[in-house]
TrEMBL record:
Keywords: Membrane, Transmembrane, Transmembrane helix. The chain crosses the membrane at residues 12-30, 36-54. This is DUF3093 domain-containing protein. The lineage of its organism: Bacteria, Bacillati, Actinomycetota, Actinomycetes, Propionibacteriales. InterPro entries: DUF3093.
Length: 151
């Protein structure tokens, strides 16, 4: 059985944009209202952005001998069916026009690939899980039981 672990952290570019946003908010508040107001607005916006990025980017994908965990959900490996690694247009279409509304999604728009895992549990309403990943081939191999991966 393969094992795999990945944290779906937000990219560095998002942190750079957030820093520029905080600086901009500080300046546009501090100039007319004073430094204290600028620091309050800048500080609150920085705290909010850090909290959001850490929460959103804190999603993990883990595969071990017994379970698949993706985001907040987990499922026993005995209920996993066919596994398909998706990249490029196939990944974008899987999350877009080809997506089943009942599917369980772990979508991160900044990740280039995905893995679709069919669910065989008759009591589960989701026909498949669609999981965004930086390494679709490694995740698919771990789910098929042929690989080991960590990032």
């Amino acid at each position: 059985m393969g094992t795999y672990r990945e944290s779906l952290r937000v990219p560095v570019s998002w942190w750079v944009i957030a820093a520029a946003t905080v600086i901009t908010l500080f300046v546009i508040t501090a100039v007319p209202a004073g430094k204290v107001a600028g620091l309050v607005v800048g500080g609150l916006s920085a705290a909010l952005l850090v909290l959001l990025f850490l929460r959103y980017g804190g999603a993990r994908v883990e595969v071990d001998a017994d379970r698949l965990r993706a985001g907040r959900a987990e499922i026993d490996r005995s209920y996993l069916g066919a596994v398909e690694a998706l990249t490029g247009d196939a990944a974008r279409q899987a999350f877009g026009r080809d997506c089943d509304p009942k599917a369980y999604l772990v979508l991160r728009s900044y990740l280039p690939g995905a893995v679709r895992v069919q669910i065989t549990d008759p009591g589960d309403p989701a026909p498949y899980w669609l999981i965004a990943t930086r390494h679709p081939d490694r995740l698919a191999a771990a789910l098929d039981g042929h690989g080991v991966g960590r990032s």
